[in-house]
Amino acid sequence: MFTRKLILTTLICNLCLTAASAAPAIAADEISFEMTAPVTESDNGEFTVTLKGHDLRDLFAYEVNLGIDVSHVEVVKATTAMNGFSVPPILKNNELTFAHTKVGKASGENGDVDLGTLTFKAKKPGTTTINWTSIKVIDANLVSKSFPLNSSIRFIKIFGDLADHWAKSDIMLMVDKKVVEGMDDDHFAPDMNVTRAQFATLLAKALDLKEDTVKNPFADVSPGAWFESSVKKAYAAGLINGVADDAFKPEQPITREDMTAMLLRAKAHATGIHMDDMTVNESLTFSDESAINVWAKKAVALAVESGLMNGRTELEFAPQEYASRAESVVVLKRLLAALN
What we know:
The protein is an alpha+beta fold.
């Protein structure tokens, strides 16, 4: 692989071929640069950025430096419409270097110039940022000038099944917070039912609950199960109850009233204010209020009044219907926003 020293040596050697031809020096006080992108959201993860220079004079060669997170994104290709020779992009310590020079006795570029287009591919769903940190420009007289830059573009790779979903922005926000994950890198399954174990796990992650020595009381939460640790944490923090003294039913879809009760217990744990001490100022007005179990009515009233939960419709809360993965993420996002 080429080293940075070799890149610059190559550029200078090419420039030496034209050193005898006179050219005006770079007008550094007038030059500006910009980075643009046609799209910043994609379900296939590919993004392109175009690097442009304005009011350039006799641009014969350049070296651009971009900051990227190599754990999130990879470089697919880099191209330029300028004639000459390009050094393929080099990655080192999350810095990408791309260099290009004209060759022979060609004239330098003047005015507004498209320096190059780079294509990236996100490795996984979420947000990544491309930062244009600096550029070195060189004219045909080997006069160089370096410009520190502070230009950035944020890209979001979304799950393929979220493109037109009502909860897309909230889900992707929680993905970036590393609270939620997809079923795989292409599917989130937002309308799939969320289980009691899954929601307990979401709460444990969101509140960063710690391990506790409390004994697991649930016979159906087996040692080594993927949800064992999260259920134990949530139980120790007082966020969950079982459906019986020794049964949690971890794989059972969670009802909206169960989810609401867990949500309010999580709020109580985070704020240090017991739910019994929270005051309800407005009564419920849903037509299906009678379907809400007595033990859940205060939690539902508090959640609706505080904006943590809405009804399935303006008239119905749907307490006994199952909550979806999208709903669970949205209410969790609202909880974290309220706590902050």
